[in-house]
Amino acid sequence: MSTSTDPGFQARLYRPPVPRFWWARRRSYLLFILRELSSLFVAWFVAYLLVLAYAVGQSESAYQRFLDWSANPFMIALNAVALGFAVLHAVTFFQAAPQATVVRLRGRRVPPTLLAGPIFAAWVVVSGFLIWLVVLA
Amino acid sequence: MEERITLQVARYRPEQESKPTFEEYEVPLREEWAVLDGLNYVKDRLDGTLSYRWSCRMGICGSCGMTVNGEPVLTCAAFLSDFAPGPVRVEPLRNFPVIRDLVIEMTDFVHKLGRVKPWIVADDEAPPEGAHGEYLQTPEELEEYHQYSMCINCMLCYSACPVYGLDQSFVGPAAIALAQRYNMDSRDAGNALRMAELSGHDGVWGCTFVGECTSACPKGVDPAGAIQRYKVTAATEAAKSLLLPRAAEK
Amino acid sequence: MSGRSGRSGPKRSAEPFIWLGFSAGGVVAALAIPALLFLFGLAFPLGWIDPPDHAHLDAVVTHAVTRLALLGLCVLSLIHFAHRFRFTLIDGLQLRRYDQLIAAGTYGTALVGSVLAGYVLFFAI
User: Fold this and answer.
1) Could you tell me the fold of the domain covering A26-100?
2) Taking phi first (over 0 means left), then psi (-120 to 50 degrees means alpha), and beta for anything else, what does residue C47 get?
3) Which residues contact B18 (CB under 8 A, 6 or more apart)?
4) A27 touches chain B (CB under 8 A)
5) Which of B68, B157, B172, C123 has the smallest C-beta neighbourhood within 10 Å, fewest atoms?
6) ipTM greater than 0.95, yes or no?
7) Looking at per-residue confidence, does B17 or B124 come out higher?
8) Per 3-state DSSP, what percentage of chain A is helix, strand, and coil (rounded to 5)?
9) B-chain residues within 8 Å CB-CB of C10?
10) What is the CATH number for B118?
11) pLDDT band at B148 (very low <50, low <70, confident <90, very high)
12) What angle do CA B161, B115, B200 make, to 5 degrees?
């Protein structure tokens, strides 16, 4: 313990600097930072959804203007990227969720990998319901 | 002639240099040789001044962790032939201060280990129920924490964790996994004692679930999963003490 | 055992509650956003699927249950965004020393966005 608090010992330690963009050095770190950046597109979706709801609530012509606006190439490109990040978020979140959840069957913990199946099935069901509600109902 | 492979070994000699440099050594490439055997060859035959830690050579003592070709590994379990034709870059564990060559300073980790109380805290009001005063435990109860008890304190998970690299006050993967090892033990009554440390400012909330601790662990402990599970436990307790303040005071 | 920045212990800390919001937001965002973004961001604008007519969409959006569901989706998604983006900034760009400022900015954005969502969904349409 005396060495670890000795100022001479402390001064001789080499402390490697952490590069500012440390996450660019490893594939797994890069994937992590992309996953984290999905939150920006979650916020973008909320804004887009509110503009849509507002337009629909205003009038038929406002809704038509929204559809025209959403069809310009910049918006399509932005939403294509946003969709990519939304899917990345969904897949990573559903993979992570079983790690935190403990489900017991007959007193034994169900292996996290087995929980992924029902979770992804729920995603398909909810997505199907939303598409039905918007397009088919 | 025997096949050989080049080791590029990080050297840091504070009396003669202010930051690490690399030195190259040619060692025999033998099928059964791990990186650690290569380092021992260097120490015995080529350069006796090289410093590094090792002991058991069988993945139990947890002292030979180093960064090999950028990955945190136990050098006794990383085989030279897997890196052929080389070169093999051997550096000290990342995220720790370096004392000399491949030897890192681990005081911070040792202190953190103590702070989470990784031992069985007895409940004085519920003495052991066994006939001779021993604690009884079923195989199912053992299975609850068994995985976490495999930790050998090798610190590979700290080396892989970017959160610890950025903020040394973070309690970190192995300490939390070991706290969970005792929290989930049916003989233990220390859950509430550990909560201040685990759910405090430097506890589980700093973890952003990068998951690299679990990938790095040589013993299959899954610290990332332990941290996620503890977040659920701590959040449930916090919600309970908000909704039922009187029950929480007891 | 004192925290570095003198923040209070776990009993009064907001972190567990924010984390619950972050997790709930992560779940609803993961369940709902890909399908909705696919429809309104790509499928309708690119003509893969005909967009629903105004009368139908108006009936769906102004239904009380939809308003509540959309408000829940917006608020929880914004909490999820704020919490995750806070850590992206303090870890990804090494700005931990500005954590309090960043937290005020991200959670503040979520709060303003939530109020705006409530206004749009319950008063403006």
Assistant:
1) 3 helical TM bundles of succinate and fumarate reductases (1.20.1300)
2) left
3) A14
4) no
5) C123
6) no
7) B17
8) 80, 5, 15
9) 195-196, 199-200, 203, 234, 238
10) 1.10.1060.10
11) very high
12) 70
